[in-house]
Amino acid sequence: MQHQSQTYGIRDFYFWKITISLALASFFIFACMYSVQPLLPVFVTEFGVSASESSLALSLTIVGLIAGLIILGFLSDRMGRTLFIKLSLIGSIIPFLLIPLMDSFFILIVLRFIQGFALAGLPAASLAYISEEIDRRSIGVATALYISSNALGGMAGRVITGYITDHYSWQIAFYTLAIVGVLILIAVSVMLPKSRFFQADNLPFLKDMEGFIFHLKNPALRIVFGLGIVLQFSFSGLWTYLPFYLQEKPFFLSLHTISYTFFAYGLGVVGAPVAGWLAGVYGMRKIRLAGILVLTAGIFMTLSSSLILVIIGLCVTCLGFFTAHSLTATSVSVQATHHKGSAASLYLVAYYIGVALGSSSLGPLWEYAGWIGLIGLIGIIPIAYILVVKIAFRYSGRKKDRSW
After folding, report:
1. Which of 47, 190, 262, 314 could join 105 in a cystine, given CB atoms 3.0 to 4.6 angstroms apart?
2. What is the pLDDT of residues 275-313, one digit of tens each?
3. Are 381 and 296 in contact (CB under 8 A)?
4. What's the average model confidence in pLDDT over 319-344?
């Protein structure tokens, strides 16, 4: 029997209740976040908007998420973890019930912004909850399962909405996600144990801001945050405009067929832990650089007119991205000597800024230069960023950071 004063280890029943609850919640939150990605061409047709305007259905959700990460993270430190995990699920379900009733694209993106804000409650509270309630030796397992469910949720959300929309309608797809959300909310409400080790943070807001400013003054961390933006900018740009590309010649794919391409995300579940193991053997810098080179190679492979090569390119892209991203996220905790929580929050904010920029800022490029112009830019940017960093280190007169 687990003693009240002890955290939960991997052999404890409550460890699995926590881990499964957070994995389910994470699965749904990330399914919600990316569910509209395959639907962007549908919104163009149904609401008479441009591809750039259609992409706001994703990018404004991410803007809401970024605001929520800062505000709800602050409140979670003061009011508790489980409250915000449950509120996040409720706030994510309600827009899926309201959006199908609206005939205005403006109202749709406003509700998606609100949904994005609500989504942030889970990432803002869950990792802190794990670190407080789970035994230190078992945190790695709980965190790995939580992060894997992020990738699975993002993949499932895209596949489900693409498939159901092609066979029925996007409204039915949203109602389906709402039903899944209600079932997961019930499961989480029943299974998730109350916090036992949460201690309210009574420090003033300015103290929290000092932690953020401390990290932003650190040049090495600024480079890491910048790489987070660049990686996600290229990755999101590829996947946001892929449905438009595959509906055109020479492919002429249906929406439900396009939705199957998102299964390539499954390599993210493999890529992250393998990257961690390889980094332990060969060093983080080498494997991260290898991940970026693989990402770039995969992106350029999608220029092929062969659907088989495009699909292989998408798989290679996912493998490279999740390798590079997982090691970039790891390097945040390596570089941050103090206020590690705020450093992790800043990396998440940088990561989602990349999602928002990759979703909407590339719209004009897609409309004027097509797939070749889009791929040319997003394929070159990660390599260019690394080269600029290396040149800056060489000519700055500062001692080169070992991680770069």
Report:
1. 47
2. 777 877 888 889 999 999 999 999 999 999 999 999 999
3. no
4. 76
Residue with tokens 């199957």: 260
Q: Output the 3-class SS for 338-381.
A: CCHHHHHHHHHHHHHHHHHHHHHCCHHHHHHHHHHHHHHHHHHH
Return the bridge partners of 8, or none: 134
Q: Which two tokens stand for residue 388?
A: 């600029």
Domains 11-202 and 203-404 share a fold: yes
Closest CA relative to residue 329, chosen from 281, 378, 293, 279: 279
Displacement of CA 8 from its chain's centroid (Å): 27
Instruction: Show the tokens assigned to 165.
Output: 């929309």
CA atoms of 324 and 375, how far apart (whole Å): 19
Structural domain boundaries in the chain? 11-202, 203-404
Distance CA 221, CA 337 (A): 11
Written as one letter, the residue type at 388 is V
List all residues 6 or more positions away from 207 whose beta carbon is below 8 Å from its beta carbon.
none
CATH class of the domain comprising 203-404: mainly alpha
User: Cα separation of 228 and 327, whole Å?
Assistant: 10
Q: Distance (Å, rounded) from C-alpha 64 to C-alpha 66?
A: 5
* CATH 1.20.1250.20 applies to domain 11-202: yes
Residue among 106, 110, 83 at smallest CA distance from 95: 110
**Angle of CA points 243, 149, 131, to nearest 5°:** 140
236, 105 contact by CB (below 8 A): no
Buried b (16+ CB within 10 A) or exposed e, 225-244: bbbbbbbbbbbbbbbbbbbb
For the whole model, what pTM was predicted? 0.83
